[in-house]
């Protein structure tokens, strides 16, 4: 088997970003010749050079660690499990945010779009969907796009799935995550999912509203929801850098009333 060097990784990422050696080298303050030698494996870059290149290419923290390891250096960024006591304060704050958002659904998700924290409204939203459909832990892409998941309840599946598939495609390209890539390949085999090669060009059409809403039927009521995403502003830990919060809001008064009534019944 051929060993992948840090130079190979840098060149692949630079090509994906469509950056020339000259422009990138000048940005980080090294000569184009040195960057060329690094990519060819003729020169070993320092940790500072690796970090600078990764930062200018906007690499995820996990991949920056991978580059350092490939060059023979120790990883720079820690990866602390969300359940670790060191993150108990952050975990509690996230749960407080999600609970305060109830009776509207909300979840904290990791880089593979697995649900790590949620509120009661989020649990109510996916109630009745088998574990083998939504995954363990629950994965938002699987749950939303699987024919036995929320796909069958989604009334505007074409534009909503276009939004999700483009988001998934961008996540695969940005992170180069093999698990996400495998999930994308699996989803491409499901009914009503367009060809995998065209996901990057998908665009929700026919939407006149300021934001695309998700039209979904739950317990006989048709809900209209839009979402907002939030991330940590200055993460220095791999886990936190990959964590985001997605909050669902009612797009109309009827949806808000239905969600509040559903919460009271529960």
From TrEMBL:
Gene3D superfamilies: 3.30.450.180, lambda repressor-like DNA-binding domains. Residues 10-64 form the HTH cro/C1-type domain. SUPFAM superfamilies: lambda repressor-like DNA-binding domains. It holds the Pfam family MLTR_LBD. InterPro entries: Cro/C1-type_HTH, Lambda_DNA-bd_dom_sf, MLTR_LBD. PANTHER family: BLL4672 PROTEIN-RELATED, BLL5781 PROTEIN. This is Transcriptional regulator. It comes from Streptomyces nigrescens.
């Amino acid at each position: 088997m051929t060993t992948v060097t840090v130079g190979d990784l840098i060149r692949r990422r630079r090509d994906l970003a469509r950056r020339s050696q000259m422009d990138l080298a000048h940005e980080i303050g090294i000569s184009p010749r040195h960057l060329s030698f690094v990519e060819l494996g003729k020169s070993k870059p320092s940790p500072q050079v690796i970090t600078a290149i990764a930062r200018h290419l906007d690499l995820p923290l996990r991949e920056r660690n991978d580059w350092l390891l490939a060059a023979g250096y120790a990883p720079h960024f820690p990866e602390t499990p969300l359940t670790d006591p060191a993150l108990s304060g952050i975990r509690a704050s996230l749960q407080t945010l999600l609970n305060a958002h109830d009776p509207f659904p909300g979840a904290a998700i990791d880089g593979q779009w697995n649900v790590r924290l949620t509120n009661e409204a989020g649990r109510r939203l996916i109630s009745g969907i088998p574990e083998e459909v939504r995954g363990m832990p629950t994965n938002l892409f699987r749950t939303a796009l699987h024919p036995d998941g929320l796909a069958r309840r989604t009334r505007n599946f074409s534009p909503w799935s276009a939004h999700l598939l483009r988001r998934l495609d961008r996540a695969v390209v940005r992170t180069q995550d093999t698990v996400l890539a495998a999930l994308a390949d699996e989803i491409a085999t499901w009914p009503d999912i367009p060809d995998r090669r065209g996901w990057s060009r998908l665009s929700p059409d026919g939407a006149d509203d300021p934001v695309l809403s998700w039209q979904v039927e739950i317990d006989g009521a048709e809900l209209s929801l839009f979402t907002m995403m939030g991330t940590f502003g200055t993460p220095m830990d791999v886990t936190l850098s990959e964590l985001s919060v997605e909050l669902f809001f009612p797009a109309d008064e009827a949806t808000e009333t239905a969600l509040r009534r559903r919460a009271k019944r529960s």
